[in-house]
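# step 3/5: fold
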Amino acid sequence: MPETRFRLGDAQVAALARWSFGLGNAAPELPPADAYEDAQGVLVAVREQGRLVVVEVPRWRPPSAVTRQEARTAWVGSPPADPSELPAHVLALVPAAGTSADSAALSAAAAEWTAVRAGGREVELVFVPVTAAAPEVSWPVVAEAYGATLLGTRVDAQPAGHRGGAVLFFTGLSGAGKSTIAARVVELLVEEGRGVTLLDGDEVRNHLSAGLGFSRADRDTNVERIGWVAARIAKHGGIAVCAPIAPYASVRETVRGEVEAQAGPGSFVLVHVATSLADCEQRDRKGLYARARRGEIPSFTGISDPYEVPVDAEVTVETRGRSVDECARQVLAHLR
């Protein structure tokens, strides 16, 4: 039989590392598979005769590779406001609360510590991600395992959550103005110096989803692909702006779950561009609605196929009598 491989989430990888280093009481419960890899496709563990064997866990260093004779101080959470407080050897224990978004959180935390060294401080830093605000074993025990003494006065562990990345997910009928408003939102974000990526529905159809049709299954696949790319952008602190029609509530909910699993709670912003069907037909420059009315375009959203109006949108944009700039700034106001 062919080998089965399973891709682990970030929290699962971290739990695997902690267990392999003797900092957890039991092996993590993983789905049945012959081999396990991390989000980047790196092999981290295999099953040999039913037994879980850890191969390698990137980003983690076992205590045996860290412990030294020099005195080392462990810090839980972010670095101190005054870097001069740091000793020459530092162990940074950064809690990530056990969420599947811990990769984004840990990247942000690592950047804080890197900034300390960039400031000219001669600090030997070992960065240790810990996926719980309160680990299975106590902070002093974790620190001791790495040959460090815990500095208890700076235990400022906070659960990792939303760390700046976001997905602005526009939905609405064809011709509602989604792409136009989304493009203006991108312009305004660029003017502010924000990192932003536009995933326009038509462009994604032509490239990422080339070959898909317009059945419900194909439409869902197209939206899920957009959501997956957007989630990866948000996971690493960027802003993704998406503008598909996304007519079905179930797939919008799937995308919300994917984004928040990778980038944390609050990272998904559903924007309903609530232009009426009558207004969309009136402004239809391509004549698509007329063709759909004549039966020339099957499964056309709003005519022969349903559009499920969102009941969970963070922002509802009414376009009648309003400029594109006004609509775009309403969306941006939600990010502030």
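# step 4/5: annotate
The first helix runs from residue 10 to 20.
# step 5/5: archive (pending)
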